[in-house]
Every structure is written in structure tokens, then in C-alpha cells.
Amino acid sequence: MTKFPFPLRYSIPVILILCGGLLGLFSSYQEIKQVYKDTENEGRNYLKISAGQTAIILDYLYRRKDTQSAVITIISQLGSDSHLKKVILFDENDNVKVSTRYELINLDAENTNAKSHLSLFNQIRNHQQGQILLSNNNDSLVALYPVLLNTLPGELHPSRIGILFFEYDLNFARKKAFNNIAQRNVVSLTLLIICCIVLWFFFELTLTRRVSKLVSASNSFSQGNLNIRTQLSGSDELAKISCAFDRMASIIEKNTIILEKQLRERKAITQKLKKTNIELELATKAKSEFLANMSHEIRTPMNGVIGIAELLSLTNLDTEQKELINVIQDSGKSLLTIINDILDFSKIEANKIKLEEQYFNLFELIKSICLLMSKEAEKKHIKLEYHIDSDIPDYFLGDCFRLRQILLNLISNAIKFTPKGSVFITINIDRKFKFDEEKEELQYQLLVTIKDTGIGIDKDKIDILFEPFTQGDASINRQYGGTGLGLAISKNLVELMGGTIWVESNGKIGGKQPDNWYSKVNYIYDKPHIQGSTFYFTFQVKEVLHCNLSPNYFSEAKSDKPQPKNELPQLKILLAEDNKVNQKVGLLTLKKIGYTADIANNGLEVLEMLEKQFYDVILMDMQMPKMDGITATQKIRQSDTKQPIIIAVTANILEEDRQKCLDAGMDDYISKPIGIVKLKNTLAKLTVQF
Fold it and tell me: Is 458 helix (H, G, I), strand (E, B) or coil?
């Protein structure tokens, strides 16, 4: 903001002088304007009287025919009037008969000031009526009156009519009036200046010094001097402002002291929180590393247990032996599920889960999941059905494997807690919107509903259902098992996919339902007329108009038996594994597929054996003594020799472990325990060139 150029004690008097001067000029202009008008009116009245009476007198004198000297006397007397510039009597021939200026006598009107009014002479003679006119330059008035000169004997209509010409000077009267106005304005301006000087002294003594003190105190206060006080005395407004300023300064000083104390305390708390956060991050990292290590240590022997059980299941067994093998396989799968849940939850806590985008067919995905769960449903005589809205496109872009994990979790829960009846899955379009205005691509929000006729959820437990390590009832864990992490993991995954999850059971709703959702359950006498539970969740995916996915890309879920041996080419395989049990499992699994393999106990042995002979495929463990699989792979890729296919076979299942293997140069990744189908399909995919 631009500052005013003068201090208050100067600016107010200057403004008053300027305003007073402008007001005086304006009033003087109006007064002069009025004086000019009044002067003209007075001149007209004066001429009307003087010229009219003079014309009457001259007319009377000329009728007597012996008054030439009297006429000259009258004209001469009129010439002594300072307002009259010229007085001329023209004869009937428009020549000067008598004038206040003797040099004009006998001159014609063309050589006098009456030249511009000659056109009016005949008009005045004809009408016998005088006229008063304003001159062209507006500085004088002109009076023209007829005068009857000597008449001829026997003349019926006198024709010897002269013109009496008066020129009245307006400037004389105007100048006099202007001088009077100027004198008055000088007196007024002098009084105004004296008043402003007195006002300046008044401001200086009563206002300016006190305002300056307030300004100085304010500047000092703004610079951090909170002890400053104005302490002005008096009962006027400035004294009240001073009191208010002093009170404000006192309050601010007290609050500043309190705030500084709070800031010091907050700083200490912030530092403590930072330290705590660092400790929590370290603890979370240590927990994640511990869980990952535990997963590795558990998966390593689990690979032996599940692998041997799978191999045994393919041998000729009696009924009792098959039942025992099924128990081992089911227990192993349950244990793997628990381990995977704990690892997923630890990754969620560490904020390490990131969604991937793959093309997938939603119909094939649901079909494969229901096919996978159908065996468990058939055991309990549960009817498992699904319905997908016909308006939903076939192909989408999104994380189909995380979606599969959510669906498997919720559907397996529905089957687990449903002793009889049915489980029904429906998928509808919740809404759709453009996510790329230029490409006009659509993003869908789909609503998945999983309804069962099971035992339902207690009303007092439904609010904590999606919390980690919680279940609807303590007896649930004893009867049905589980870690209580499945729904918590599903909730986090759904939120990562841009949706929300909720459940409805026994007239209560748990979770976070959308604002536009309403329950369709019928209530009779305040009780829901429905059995079991209904889980809902929404998620967002992008529509794909064209996709070349094979319709059987979920074939692994459809088949748990190996294909005939003659489908794979003959390969030279090296198994890099330090655990003796896993070596045996690996060799037996390869044998079932139709292959044999050599064994290397660590990375150094892998390099030594590659120097002796070439291997088409190396099944490489990550963690081995002397040299791990990552280092061995890097050295192989750095060499100039013919490159084998390297497949990571490891108990480390975190995404960063998989990425570490691929970054090192491995061609694919298989997590333990190794299934026959999984290994066979991986080999088939990577060895098509042989």
C-alpha cells in the first residue's frame, strides 16, 4: 500500500487549505458569473432609462427647431458618464450629427462603431421602437433609439428620423466587481491559513505527539519488545486506544510466555515421538524380518512335508492311507495359509503392499475360484452358486491375484461357517466413471455380495470383526480354527483397490458401508427375516476393450494332477539346494515329471559344475552357505559362456525377494513348498525353445 507523502500534522492543514482554496475558487467563479449577469442586466436597465429618456428629450427639442446647442449640451453631458464609451446621434442619412467625440461629426455610420448595426437602422425607423443589444465580443451593450428630427412643412409622415446610438462599457463594472471579489477571497484565504496554523499547533500538541508515541510503541512491539507500554493519560479516544493497546500487549506477553513454554514442551514431545517412531519403524522392520525369516524356516521343512505327502498321494495307497495323506495335505495347506496371512498382515503394517495391474477375465476368475472351492462345499453338501451381471465387461485391468485372495478368503469363510444350505455370490456394477478424459476410458466400481445361510455373527461382535487378531467368538477359533487375520487383510486390500467392505448379520451392520447403500433384508417384528451373514465389498478396476488372454489362464486352479511325461523336452537340470530333505523332495518331484537332476549344495558348487558341463535349467535356492543363489546367478550372468535358464526355488516369498531374484538375472520364481503342477508348468513355460 502506498504511504501518504506527509505526516498527519502536515497533511490535515494542507488538505484544509487545498479544499478551502478550491471551494473559494469555485465560489468566486460562481460569483463572477453572477456578477457578469447582473452587470449586463443593470446595464440594460440603465440604457433603457438613459437612452429612452434622452431620445424623448432630443425628439422634443428638435420639434422646436431651435435647440441645436441644447442637443450638443445633452450629448456632451452624457459623455462624462464613465460607463458610456460613445454617444452618437445619426441623422436621417446615417451620418454623425452630434457625438461625444467631435472628430466623428459628419462621418457616415460605416466609419463608426455602429457599422455592425446598420442593418437595424431602417427597422428602428419603421417601427419607431428602440433596441438594446449585446456586442459581438460581449464586452459592451449597444442601445439604438429613434429620434424625430426637424419635420418639413406639410409633411404627413415625418421621414427625417435619426438614430441615437449608446455604447455602454460592461468591462468597467465587471472589473470593479472582480476586484471586490478578489479582495474578499484574499481575506478569506488569509483567515483560512491562520486557522490551519492554529489547527497544526493543536494537532501537534494534542494529537500528533500522542499518535507518534503510539506508532513508536507499536513498531517496538512488532519487533519483539513485549514489555513496551504507551501509558497515555486523558479521557479522549487516543487515551482509550492507549489503554486497549497496553492491555493487548500485556495479554500477548503472558500468552507468549505460555506459548513458548508449550512450544518447548511440544518440541520435547516431538523429539520423543520421533525417537519412538524410529524405534517403532525399527521394531516393525525387525518384526517383518523376523516373520520373513520364520516363514523361511517354516517353509523349508514344510516343503519336505507337503512335497513328500504329494508324492505319496500319487502312489498306490489303500483307503486308510489315502485318508492319512489327505490329513497331512490339509494340515499343511492350513499351516501355509496361516503363514501367508501373518506375512501379508506384516507387509500391510509396514505399508509394503503395492497393487499390480494385469489383464484378467472376471468371469474366468470367479469360475476358477468356485471350481476350486466346490470340493470343500460338496463335502458339507452346500450349494455354491454365483451370478455376474450381464452388463459387466469381460476384461479388466487390475490386481486380479489380490482380488482372488479377497474372494477366496470370504468364500472359504462362508463355507466354513455354513453347516448346511447355500453360499451365493453376485457381482453387480455399483457405478462407472471416466478415468481418462482424452482416451474416454471407463473405470468401474463393482459390488460383490457373498451371502451364506450359516451361523451368523453375534451383534456385540460384529463391530470388531475387521480388526486384526479378532474373531466373532473365542469358541470360533477352537471349533473352526484360523488366525483372525483374514478379514483384516481383506479390508486393507479392498481399501487399496479403492473400495470398502462391510457385513450384515442378525440385524446389525459392521464395517463401513457406502452412504448410498441400503439394506434389502426384510424385517418381521424388528427381527431380520434372513439366516446367516452377507458380506459386501466394492473395488475399482479399469475396463479393457480388447485383450488376447487365454480363457484357461487360471488352469492351475482347475487341475491338481500332473500332465503326461512326454509333453516336456529332455533337459539337463541342476538342483542347487543345501537342505538334504528338500534335495530329496526336489529329485523325487522332478522324477515324477520325468526328469533327473544333479545336486549342488551351494553357489560355489554351481559355478564349479558349470565349468565342467552345461545345464539347460538350474533350480536355484536363494539362501545357501558359502555362496547364496543371488550371488551365484549374478556371476553366471556376468560370464561369457552359454547361459542356462535359472529358476529361483526358495522359501522367501516376499515381493522384494521375488524382485531381487529377477533383478539378479533369474528367469522365474517359485516359492516353497513346490507343487508338482507348479514346477511342471514353470518348466514348460520357460523351456519351449528346447
Answer: coil
* Whether 604 contacts 627, CB under 8 Å: yes
Q: What is the CA radius of gyration of the chain?
A: 59
DSSP characters over 138-175: SSEEEEEEEEE-PPPTT-SS---EEEEEEEEEHHHHHH
| CA dist., res. 422 & res. 404, Å (int) | 20
Whole-model pTM over 0.70: no
Region 331-339: mean pLDDT is 71
Whether 303 and 375 share a structural domain: no
pLDDT tens column, 269-327: 988 888 888 887 777 777 667 766 766 677 677 777 777 777 777 778 787 777 777 77
Contact status, residue 144 vs residue 131, Cβ threshold 8 Å: yes
Coil, helix or strand at residue 6:
coil
Q: Please tell me the total count of domains within the chain.
A: 4
Residues 372 and 419 in one domain: yes
Please report, for the domain that includes residue 80, its CATH number: 3.30.450.20
**Strand 527-528 with 523-524, pairing:** antiparallel
Burial pattern 521-557, b for ≥16 Cβ within 10 A else e, equals: eeeeeeebebebbbbbbbbbbbbbeeeeeeeeebeeb
Contact in structure between 421 and 380 (CB atoms under 8 Å): no
- Asked if 308 contacts 586 with a C-beta cutoff of 8 angstroms, the reply is no
Strand, coil or helix: 200: helix
- Strand 617-620 and strand 645-650: the pairing is parallel
- How far apart CA 443 and CA 446 sit, in angstroms, is 10
Grid coordinates representing 43 are 446595464
What is residue 127's predicted lDDT score, i.e. its pLDDT?
A: 81
Task: Give yes or no: residues 271 and 141 share one domain.
Answer: no
| Domain membership flag for residue 345 | no
pLDDT digits (tens, 9 = 90+) for 557-581: 444 444 444 456 788 999 998 888 8
Q: Is it the case that residue 641 has pLDDT exceeding 50?
A: yes
User: What is the span of the domain harbouring residue 68?
Assistant: 8-176
Identify the H or E element spanning 135: none
Residues with Cβ within 8 Å of 652's Cβ and at least 6 positions away in sequence, in order, are 292, 295, 296, 622, 623, 671
- Amino acid in position 78: L
Strand (E) or helix (H) holding 448: strand 441-452
Q: Tell me what the mean pLDDT of segment 78-83 comes to.
A: 76
CA distances from 367 to 175, 384, 400, 452 (A): 114, 11, 13, 18
Among 492, 493, 498, 489, smallest CA distance to 541 is for 498
- Which residue has 475399482 as its cell numbers? 540
Q: What is the spatial distance between Cα 236 and Cα 565, in angstroms, rounded to a whole number?
A: 109
**Domain contains 335:** no
Regarding whether 538 and 582 lie in a shared domain, the answer is: no
Name the range with the highest mean pLDDT among 109-113, 420-424, 471-475. 420-424
